Amino acid sequence: MEKPTHSIEYETMLLGRYYHLTLSRAERAGDHLDRSAYVLLSRIQLVGPMSIGQLSEAFDLDPSTLNRQTSAMLRAGLVERIPDPDGGIARKFHISAEGERRLRCQRDEIVRSMDKVLDGWTPEEVATFAACLQRFNTDIERLTGRPWPRP
CA 116 to CA 22: how far, in whole Å? Predict the structure, then answer.
């Protein structure tokens, strides 16, 4: 008999597939943010301006990877480079009005899509599922030592 974690692994893989399909629809609509931009913008939106070093620490990614991703976001007008509001030397990335708009549009599309999926669920089932997902993610964050800020 398989352990329940085998089922969780498989179901999270399918969930990732569903998310990818939702992003593909957004891409066809013309307001697509690639996954890295979506995640980076989400983090910057929650915590405020961040430097390459702060992004590197938050995501455990090499600064060269983040330089490529943030350069693409700058070219697309999704972020702006600003002086450190706290007076530090490093310049920081701040989400632009266009980045805010596109992130909001994509998030709204994903939520509408999830609303359709969860249409037959009771409010209690949706709340329980949300609480379980949050617990799952916070336990991952605890193990990796990289907590994710929540609104």
Answer: 12
DSSP state of 41: H
pTM for this prediction: 0.85
Dist. CA 52–CA 50, nearest whole Å: 7
Q: How far apart are CA 123 and CA 113, in angstroms?
A: 16
Query: What is the Cβ-side half-sphere exposure of residue 6, based on CA atoms within 13 angstroms?
Result: 3
For 127-146, how does the pLDDT look when each residue is reduced to its tens digit (9 = 90+)?
999 999 999 999 999 999 98
Q: Dig out the tokens for 145 from the structure.
A: 């030592």
Using alpha carbons, select from 65, 128, 127, 75 the residue that is nearest to residue 99. Answer: 75
The CATH number covering residue 100 comes to 1.10.10.10
81 Rama class: left (phi>0) / alpha (psi -120 to 50) / beta:
beta
Domain count, the chain: 1
Structure tokens at 40: 């980076």
Domain that holds residue 19: 4-117
